[in-house]
Amino acid sequence: MLLALGTHTVRRSVPVLSGVWEVRAEFRARASAFCPPGWLDQRRYTSGGKKKEPRIVAVKSVEGSELLQNVLQKNKQLLQERRDVLVRDIRERKEKVKERVEEVIERENVATVPNLLCIGRIVASPYLGYVIVQGEFRLAMGMLIVAGLTDLADGLIARHWPNQASRLGSFLDPMADKVLVGSLVIAMSYIDLLPLWLTAMILFRDVFLIGAGFVIRYISLPQPRTLSRYFDVTHATAQLAPTFVSKLNTAVQLVAVAATLGAPIFNYVDHAYLHGLWYLTGFTTVAAALSYLTNKDTYKILRKKSS
Fold it and tell me: Could you state, in order of their start, the residue ranges of all structural domains in the chain?
């Protein structure tokens, strides 16, 4: 009887268990409509009442992967742009530092005794011309002698004391001679002591050489070419080397000017020897101009033009 009762009990428990599983399946179906997928699988409980550890489900969506790729690509582009800007800035600063160093190397001391003597001669030349126009020939002769002595002195000082020599002096010395001679010939032509044709030849040659000096300065000046750097006398870029004919012409011009200035003092105005000296001065003036055109060693660029 017990066996029969046990069998009956087993038979009756089977429909009960199947009903429980059906209710559970229906509950899961309805709960899945309101809960995220996999939520019921992530939190399960054992028969002992202990909670199981949730399973972490790694979900990789296509949209998230594309968004991550875009962010990484943008960050990479930003880093490349910043790197390029940094490299370009470093190169520019390096070039500026190099240029500053070169400028410091090329700068020289211009406050020398020969340069000061040349500047004094340039400043005094217009006043000397004014004295001649006023008829003060003896005073003008004395000033001319002083100017000639300063011309000799600056050359001797520059040769015997190397620290007093400068590249600026190679331009100032001939410039002072040209300004002095130009002031004298203009003043003497104004009062009819000197022929006009000789004055025109001397002035034309001097203006041509001064213009060539400005061109040489522009060519030899490295980039950037600015007005402040162009007229910076401490930044030497070229050196002038006068020719022998040019030096001879300067000496002949000074002798002719002094002889013409002394004519009204010693009463030999319009003398034949004076005319011969004028023609000799004109010839040497033309020869000196040609020597500058044909001789390539009259100037030297101290620094090549930077690319």
Answer: 112-301
